[in-house]
């Protein structure tokens, strides 16, 4: 594996500041690229952009939504899951609660809240949505629209083991510290592309989940 590439300096994470910045910088406009294959989500990496262009030509768009649930502890955390080992897609990987957007979902926000309830039993009564993050494309044709939300502590979870093996929290201060943002590379059909990894204890956070966390950092703290 490559050594971490350190970009930008560490940030001081306070719950009030994070939520205030999120409310100011995010909104609920749904990007047309969530459904339109002709609009390619920008990744900031030339190799990934090329991959997404190829995927858009070869596969149907798969709209999806996830919940970036930031728990309002004195030291805030983000709720993550470990996907069940028997799943066909991304088995055993670290993920946000979420999944594909169904025709019956009123919005991507509604899909993210529904999936969080179905996967880990997080009641939407504890969730205050703050806005959508940037659209994120993957090599499997998913177009993922993350909802950033403030979650009130005191909730109880009920794990749906047909989808998720575990749910756990990681300090926001760790995930928003770019010192912990490792940049690795792999090839897609002969073209190098980069991806992020954020190992935390025994959990290996990488790929789309780490990529969306990096986007969160850039939107909330980098500008």
UniProtKB/TrEMBL annotation:
Residues 61-196 form the Nudix hydrolase domain. It comes from the Bacteria. It holds the Pfam family NUDIX. Keywords: Hydrolase, Magnesium, Manganese, Metal-binding. Its cofactor is Mn(2+); Mg(2+). InterPro entries: CoAse, NUDIX_hydrolase-like_dom_sf, NUDIX_hydrolase_dom. PROSITE patterns: NUDIX (PS51462). This is CoA pyrophosphatase.
